[in-house]
């Protein structure tokens, strides 16, 4: 167990922080207490700033957690006093550092705790947009004498401008900002989120420190707005602040130009009512052209809306046009859901002759996600650049305007990841060629890539199944590209240890082909003379994947090598990268078909000669904990043990945006919500069950486990263990909790099943 937790088998990797302001192929490193720029074109390294240069007005060093460079490379925006909030969001005290004069001054006077949630430079010029106390400000110039423009004034704990609230951060944007500069820096689009009517969820904090021995006679309390299915969502609206107009009017008028005259809300015909509307991706396609996606709460009807802010005035300028229809009557064309992906990729105007155009990843007629071109931007019909019974993953990696190429990652086949390029094919008469692989597709493997801003270079990361490595590649260099990181120490370490044996296969479940990964003990006897226990490990959430060829050494490997346990991972119905046909069956009925797939797989393994049919179990975390509990509820008589960590037990207790995307609204699907929750606990009498949850879980609330415990109590189920981890969030990490959780689960397995293989008597 020590080796799992101390990083013995962890592969080192480096992310290249590309610095577009310094040119293509330039990235930053932190070395010898300084930020340095590495130029791959010239093979030179220069120092940008040293830690000792950054001091406050009292001469005290400022220790920063992150930085951003102005477009002209004259200033740095530095974030200090980092204070984590939710998964992506945090607060900080921001400072502007002049690289020429080596002077530093605060963006706003520093506070304890900090109150600025986000700050960023304009793409050209030297303006800064930032959000303090949930109000949006714009600083036109980074000089100490410059005054910030307060764009909004109503911000409070329930009214957000330019940053997401909890549910939009978690389920829509997966980041910490909701403001977007136009390419010419003349405008700032921002989201306004009003969660005044969203109900509060409260949970206690027993110990706000990292010291397990600390005692606090009175608990603190976390209060958060957390919308649940059928209850009020935050009301979203999109606004634009016209900075250029505001500055021009103030310069030409003696009296100050009202800020509201330079700020306007965007509307469009066919928009869902605010209480039934979720605004998703927002992108500038040009200086005056904005595009966004909107879906209803049930995620079965949506629009892509285009705004031309420079071609009209008044209402016409702020009223958008629906250019694409999403959902059953639109691009998806089935009974599934509209994904919340952020894949719109604006094309450079140098490619399109100055007219806006963009790429997106959308389902084709067969339900596979592929790259589509929309040129011009008001096109309603996609022109696909890729096709086939495979899927593009994680959006567009880069566009090479010079070569007319689009770079992307694809699941070819579904458990692998490869990097490809494809011709952009802007001419409608041009038929795109087959994608060109940039990685070795001759053997099972997984790659990711990080491209420089103009796609002249990329960091290629090999992720498995063998020891990961990284290589920096120049696309027009036909010579050798040196290995950037070979993980030599890990190779040497692995040579001294026996490794689990990993095999891949597929099974059929009710006519669906499912991917399977089996992790076996080294030197396993598969003749049938030795019977091994098997744990099924799964997550199973919509669009997810656990069966892949990535290098990994975790608890499953520890069980295989230390205890001779077999682990089987099955990606059932609802999971990702095999098309909508496999994903859609779980719509409106989460947990049913996924559990059936796990049970069917367990039956198959129960029939294998080397499996002990009395020692078949299942475990998972979060959605996986929900899944293992649904399998127990099904009471199929196959599993004798189950573990659930931080599970959802009733979808009425989870957040609205995620749940309603797959389940619809409770009022329209009441039976589905009952069936998709843990509603019957008779089956829990028949298994050894372990339940664990962090009391400070802001994502899957502890109330889920409390609800299940009540049902177990009522049914007099007593053959289970429960472990609460004080104040831990969804990751169960606080005050040594993560290691203890895995130790506890291991002891539970050994107590119930003993160590692995048992020889048959002959």
From TrEMBL:
What SUPFAM superfamilies has UniProt attached to this entry?
A: alpha/beta-Hydrolases, DPP6 N-terminal domain-like
- Alphabetized UniProt keyword annotations: Aminopeptidase, Glycoprotein, Hydrolase, Membrane, Protease, Serine protease, Signal-anchor, Transmembrane, Transmembrane helix, Vacuole
Q: Which domain of life is it from?
A: Eukaryota
Keyword flag Repeat: no
Q: Which residues form the Peptidase S9 prolyl oligopeptidase catalytic domain?
A: 555-754
| Keyword Coiled coil tagged | no
Gene3D superfamilies membership: alpha/beta hydrolase, Dipeptidylpeptidase IV, N-terminal domain
Q: Where does the Dipeptidylpeptidase IV N-terminal domain lie?
A: 70-469
- What membrane topology does this protein have? Single-pass type II membrane protein
- This chain belongs to the protein called Dipeptidyl aminopeptidase
Lineage at the top is: Eukaryota, Fungi, Dikarya, Basidiomycota, Agaricomycotina
């Amino acid at each position: 167990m020590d080796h799992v937790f101390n990083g013995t088998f962890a592969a080192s990797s480096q992310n290249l922080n590309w610095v577009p302001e310094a040119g293509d192929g330039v990235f930053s490193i932190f070395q010898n207490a300084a930020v340095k720029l590495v130029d791959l074109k010239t093979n030179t390294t220069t120092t940008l700033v040293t830690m000792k240069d950054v001091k406050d007005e009292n001469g005290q060093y400022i220790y920063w957690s992150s930085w951003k460079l102005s477009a002209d490379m004259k200033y740095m925006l530095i974030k200090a006093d980092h204070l984590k909030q939710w998964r992506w969001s945090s607060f900080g005290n921001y400072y502007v550092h002049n690289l020429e004069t080596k002077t530093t001054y605060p963006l706003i006077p520093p506070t304890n705790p900090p109150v600025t949630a986000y700050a960023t430079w304009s793409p050209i010029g030297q303006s800064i947009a930032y959000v303090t106390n949930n109000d949006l400000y714009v600083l036109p110039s980074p000089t100490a004498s410059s005054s910030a423009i307060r764009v909004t004034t109503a911000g409070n704990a329930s009214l957000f401008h330019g940053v997401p609230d909890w549910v939009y951060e978690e389920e829509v944007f997966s980041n910490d900002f909701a403001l977007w500069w136009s390419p010419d820096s003349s405008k700032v689009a921002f989201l306004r989120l009003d969660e005044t009517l969203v109900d509060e969820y409260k949970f206690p904090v027993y110990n706000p420190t990292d010291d397990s021995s600390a005692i606090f006679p009175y608990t603190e309390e976390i209060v958060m707005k957390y919308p649940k299915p059928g209850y009020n969502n935050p009301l979203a609206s999109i606004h634009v602040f016209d900075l250029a107009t505001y500055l021009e009017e103030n310069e030409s008028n003696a009296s100050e130009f009202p800020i509201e005259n330079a700020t306007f809300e965007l509307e469009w015909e066919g928009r869902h009512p605010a209480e039934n509307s979720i605004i998703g991706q927002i992108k500038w396609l040009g200086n005056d052209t904005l595009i966004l996606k909107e879906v209803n709460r049930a995620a079965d009807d949506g629009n892509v809306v285009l705004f031309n802010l420079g071609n009209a005035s008044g209402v016409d300028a702020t009223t958008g046009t629906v250019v694409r229809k999403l959902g059953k009557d639109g691009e998806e064309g089935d009974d599934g859901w509209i994904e919340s992906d952020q894949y719109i990729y604006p094309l450079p105007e140098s490619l399109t002759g100055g007219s806006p155009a963009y790429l997106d990843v959308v389902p084709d007629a067969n339900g596979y996600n592929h790259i589509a071109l929309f040129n011009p931007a008001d096109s309603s019909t996609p022109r696909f650049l890729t096709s086939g019974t495979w899927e593009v993953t994680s959006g567009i990696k880069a566009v090479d305007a010079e070569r007319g190429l689009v770079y992307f990652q694809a699941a070819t086949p579904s458990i692998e990841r490869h990097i490809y390029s494809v011709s952009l094919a802007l001419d409608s008469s041009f038929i795109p060629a087959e994608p060109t692989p940039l990685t070795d597709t001759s053997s099972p493997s997984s790659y990711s890539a990080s491209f420089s801003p103009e796609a002249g270079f990329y960091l290629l990361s090999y992720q498995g199944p063998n020891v990961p490595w990284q290589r920096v590649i120049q696309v027009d260099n036909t010579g050798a590209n040196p290995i950037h990181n070979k993980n030599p120490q890990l190779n040497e370490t692995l040579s001294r240890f026996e490794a689990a044996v990993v095999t891949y296969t597929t099974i059929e479940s009710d006519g669906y082909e499912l991917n399977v990964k089996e992790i076996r003990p080294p030197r396993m006897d598969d003749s049938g003379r030795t019977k091994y226990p098997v744990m099924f490990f799964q997550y199973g959430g919509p669009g997810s994947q656990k069966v892949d060829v990535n290098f990994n050494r975790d608890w499953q490997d520890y069980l295989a090598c230390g205890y001779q346990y077999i682990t089987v991972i099955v990606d059932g119905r609802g999971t990702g990268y095999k098309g909508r046909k496999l994903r859609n069956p779980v719509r409106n009925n989460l947990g049913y078909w996924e559990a059936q797939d796990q049970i069917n797989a367990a039956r198959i393994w129960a029939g294998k000669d080397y499996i002990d049919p009395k020692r078949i179990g299942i475990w998972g975390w979060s959605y996986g904990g929900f899944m293992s509990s649904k399998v127990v509820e099904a009471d199929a008589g196959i599993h004798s043990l189950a573990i659930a960590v931080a599970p959802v037990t009733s979808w009425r207790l989870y957040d609205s945006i995620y749940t309603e995307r797959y389940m619809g609204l409770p009022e329209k699907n009441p039976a589905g919500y009952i069936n998709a929750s843990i509603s019957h606990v008779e089956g829990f009498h028949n298994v050894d069950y372990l339940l664990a949850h962090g009391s400070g879980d802001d994502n899957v609330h502890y109330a889920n486990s409390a609800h299940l415990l009540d049902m177990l109590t009522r049914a007099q189920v007593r053959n289970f263990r429960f472990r609460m981890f004080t104040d831990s969030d969804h990751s169960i990490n606080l005050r040594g909790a993560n290691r203890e959780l895995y130790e506890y689960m291991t002891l539970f397995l050994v107590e119930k099943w003993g160590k692995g293989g048992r020889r048959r008597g002959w």
